[in-house]
Amino acid sequence: MSERQNVLIIGGGIIGHSISYYLNKSGVSAMVIDKQESGRKATRAAAGMLGVHSENAQANVFYKFCERSRELYQSLSQELFRLTSINIGLSRTGMIEVALCEEEKNKLRDKKAFFPELEWLEGEKLSEKIPSLNGSGAVGLHMEKDGHVEPTHVCEAFKRAALHFGGKLIEDHSVWGIEKNEQGYSIQLGNETLLVDRVVVAAGAESGPWFEATGLVDPMVPTKGEYISIKPKKNIWDETLFFRDFYIVPKPDGRCVIGATTKPYDRGHFPTAGGLSELLNHVFSVFPTLQSEPLQDCGAGIRPGTKDGFPIIGEHPTMAGLYFATGHYRNGVLLAPATGELMKDLILDKKVDSSITGLLSPNRLVRKGEHSYEHSN
Ligand SMILES: Cc1cc2nc3c(=O)[nH]c(=O)nc-3n(C[C@H](O)[C@H](O)[C@H](O)COP(=O)(O)OP(=O)(O)OC[C@H]3O[C@@H](n4cnc5c(N)ncnc54)[C@H](O)[C@@H]3O)c2cc1C
């Protein structure tokens, strides 16, 4: 492992593999290292929603970044299939955000004012779309361009496509230290040391210590989410439904993924009976008929949340060549393509949109300057 790589990416979730794909495709040699089999952490638990409108209340800079990412999926779907024969399950069947109480309805009205192109649904129009909804007076906003993908397929496809372009992958090796030297960085992997030009931290919910010991404020809020999936005997509706307390994503194979609980600072990787019961109580209060549908699967993952709610994407303010691409909270699947593209442009020193790099920059975490750091996982 003494060979010199241009870029080393710590973390093989959907974010790390997307960055590797974009870099290797552009001719920059990038290697992903994961402490276990890659794609098994938050990425594996995700429902895969591309919720540009459900996640944004206004058409601001962050909304545009989300929109760009969702649009990238269109061409990626074909390109990744051509390169890897993996179907990423891109589905643009739309989403409906549903409001049940007056407070939620007011928020939805505000959203409609910001996005006049979205269709307002109430009365018969809403019950035609969601016949089994038990919520008189409910209203909805139809977001027809939003949809979903299969996150594990996307992650695997990015991984294999990066390898196709000459990328490298090491699994079951934990990176426990990085040190800046004159040429770049020394990376500690157990007894071995790897020399690289640049490092990208894409370690998901485990990114916190890398900020703190490189002199920055730790912005991470690891947030557990639990989900359950059912396989209804017949297709109930086509759109993804998004409520305040849960969502239901109908997958092409007939599964409906129901998510998710939100438990800040809970790092438990297993779903609990209490968590699933809380989730299902919300669902059954609106869709009582789903109680008799066959259970398929359940699970949990730790979202890489941040204190200000935005991802951290960009170069360390004082350690040149050290980058972060993490903190995507509940939008890592949606934002994986745009994050990979942006990191590639930053590393290649290309012109980038300064409004988005300013918003997401690690400069907002400055505390003091330090130049090397170790931690054990
Ligand atoms: C229940 C649930 C539902 C979700 N639904 C959606 C959704 O519908 N749409 C959406 O866009 N997002 C969704 N998300 C969020 C999404 O899953 C995450 O934002 C995304 O997966 C983050 O990807 P990541 O690559 O940053 O992190 P991860 O997938 O967690 O990957 C990080 C990787 O880093 C590795 N690692 C950590 N430390 C080290 C180290 N020191 N050395 C080597 N490797 C290391 C880990 O082993 C891991 O494989 C959901 C999340 C959950 C939990």
From TrEMBL:
Query: Which GO-annotated molecular functions does the record name?
Result: flavin adenine dinucleotide binding; glycine oxidase activity
- Cellular component terms (Gene Ontology): cytoplasm
Q: What class of enzyme is it?
A: oxidoreductase
In this protein, which residues make up the domain named FAD dependent oxidoreductase?
7-346
Which of UniProt's keywords are assigned here? Oxidoreductase, Thiamine biosynthesis
Catalytic reactions of this protein: glycine + O2 + H2O = glyoxylate + H2O2 + NH4(+)
GO BP terms: namely: thiamine biosynthetic process; thiamine diphosphate biosynthetic process
What is this enzyme's EC? 1.4.3.19
- Which pathway, metabolic or otherwise, does it act in? Cofactor biosynthesis; thiamine diphosphate biosynthesis
Membrane-crossing ranges are none
Write down the PANTHER family for this protein, in alphabetical order: GLYCINE OXIDASE (PTHR13847:SF289), SARCOSINE DEHYDROGENASE-RELATED (PTHR13847)
Can you name this protein?
A: glycine oxidase
Organism the protein comes from: Halobacillus karajensis
